[in-house]
Amino acid sequence: MQPHDLDVVSLSFGIAFASLGVSFLLSPLGVLDLPWQWVGPALILALGGMLLTSAVRTLRRRADEPDELPEP
First and final CA of the chain: distance in angstroms? Predict the structure, then answer.
C-alpha cells in the first residue's frame, strides 16, 4: 500500500459523523446535552471552512507545479 496525502475533507466528515452518532447515543443518558439549534449552523460553517481549505490547498499545489510547455 502506497502512502498518500491526508484528505482533510474526508477526515473531517468522518469525525463529524462519528461525533454526531456519539452525541445521539449519549443524549438519552443525560451525559451529553447539546443545544441542537446550534448543531446545524456549526456543521454548515465547518463544511464551508473545509471546502475553503481544500480549495486553497489545491490552488497552492497547482501553483507549485512547473508549467509544462509542449516541445515544438
Answer: 39
